[in-house]
Amino acid sequence: MGLGWGAAPTLLQAAAGHAGTRQSPAIADTAQATLVTLWNAAMALGGIVGGLLLQRVDVTAGATAAAGLGALSLAVITLTRHHAFALTDRDTP
Known about the structure:
By secondary structure, the protein is mainly alpha-helical. Helices cover 86% and strands 0% of the residues. α1 runs antiparallel to α2 (25-56) and α1 runs parallel beside α3.
C-alpha cells in the first residue's frame, strides 16, 4: 500500500491547494481542510473493512484486497499525476 500512501496524498494536497489558490486563500484553506477530513474518514473506513475481511473471510482476503487497491492506486497516480500540476496562463512567466 506504499504506492497509495506515498504519492496520492502529496498529489491530492498539491492539487487541492493549487486549485483553491486560483480562487482565493479562503477557498484554498477550505479545500485543504476538506481533504484532511476525507483522508481521515478513508483511513477509518479502511480499518473497518480490513477488520471485517479478517473476521469473516481469512488473512489471504486482506492480502488480495491490498494488492488490488495497490494496483488501483498505481493506476490513478500514473494517469492523473500531471493534472495536479497542470500549468495555466497565470502560472507561466
